Amino acid sequence: MSLSHPIGGKTVVITGAARGIGEQLALTLSGRGARVALLGLEPERLGDVAKRCGPNAAWWEADVTDAARLAAVAKEVADRFARVDAVVANAGIATGGPLLLADPASFDRVIEVNLLGSVRTARAFLPALVTARGYYLQIASAAAFVPLPMMAAYCASKSGVEAFAHSVRTELAHHGVDVGVAYLSWTDTDMVRGGDEVTGGQRKELPWPLGTTFRLEPAVERLADGIERRAPHVYAQRHLRVMPLLRGLVPGVVYRGGRRDAADGERRILELGVEATLPVGDGGRADTAARSVPRE
User: Fold this and answer.
1) Is the peptide bond before 218 cis (omega within 30 degrees of 0)?
2) Alpha carbon 210 to chain centroid distance?
3) Radius of gyration of the CA atoms of the chain, in A
4) In terms of Cα–Cα distance, which of 118, 113, 120, 63 is closest to 279?
5) Tens digits of per-residue pLDDT, 5-60?
6) Are 74 and 243 in contact (CB under 8 A)?
7) Number of C-beta neighbours around residue 69 at 10 A
8) CA 69, 70, 73, 75 torsion: positive or negative?
9) Before 127, cis peptide (omega within 30)?
10) What's the structural domain count of the chain?
């Protein structure tokens, strides 16, 4: 592996690394010479990703909502790689459906995984990042800007992690630790595809770029570039750069334009049943399966 990239020879922890953005980011960073520590819920997939990343990769099965497990993994990662230079809080799940009809446990689980899981990830690895004067990248979403109906839990969680990361960025500056927030629009992952199965792909009727699904690899390349720059903000799709400027206008636009879609979505959930509001995609199903297994 080449060490010509700034990330070469450095250790990067990635949560949610079994598939999607986490998997592709692990492959991209290892290709740039990084050592990668992969965390997730699917041992077979994690092992396969680590194998494809090469000898400077290792994996740990971990639920990001399990603070004790994360603390143990943080110690094991430091023992394995001697230091932690960057952490990418990527693990996340999504559900669809109106609050009125959504499965309560699944709705709450989205916020627990996406928001509290990120907090617990940061807490577990911050001592190592302070020692290394490292970098923490929080994966957020365009959903932090756009309060979409039928996605209240996901939008709330992504707004939450954005605010969390911005707050700790200031707290950690005097320690030499940089913090960044990454924003992604609809990106070709199993989560997005699973959501389209539930909604019937209605968002694709929106004008470009609002309903467009973007390719995974270019988006992840931009994330990797942001990690190397230790950037405070990373936009996986270029058009997202304008969204912060429109933040104050977007809720009103969504309200005026989204009420009919919300009513249609509610009728669809009534037809499909509460099962349609469970976590979507293979990653969401993996989280649901993990919750059904009692912890020791």
Assistant:
1) no
2) 20
3) 19
4) 113
5) 899 999 999 999 999 999 999 999 999 999 999 999 999 999 999 999 999 999 99
6) no
7) 18
8) negative
9) no
10) 1
State both tokens at 259. Answer: 């009420």
Nearest to 258 by CA among 97, 144, 102, 150: 150
5: in domain: no
Cα 96 from Cα 18, distance rounded (Å): 22
Tokens of 24: 């592709």
- Three-class SS state of 63: coil
Please tell me the distance from the alpha carbon of residue 26 to that of residue 92, in angstroms, as a whole number. 16
Confirm whether 96 is domain-assigned.
yes
List active site positions. Answer: 154
pLDDT tens digits, 62-100: 999 999 999 999 999 999 999 999 999 999 999 999 999
In a domain, 232, yes or no: yes
Helix (H) or strand (E) holding 14: strand 11-14
| Whole-prediction pTM | 0.94
Spatial CA neighbour of 101 closest among 248, 280, 278: 278
CATH number at residue 28: 3.40.50.720
In sequence order, the β-bridge partners of residue 218 are none
Domain with 175, as residue range(s), is: 11-291
Task: List, as own/partner pairs, every contact residues 225-229 make where C-beta atoms lie below 8 angstroms and the sequence separation is at least 24, other chains included.
Answer: 226/137, 226/180, 226/182, 227/7, 227/12, 227/29, 227/86, 227/88, 227/135, 227/137, 227/180, 228/5, 228/6, 228/7, 228/32, 229/6
* Amino acid, res. 252: G
Contact predicate 95/279, CB 8 Å:
yes
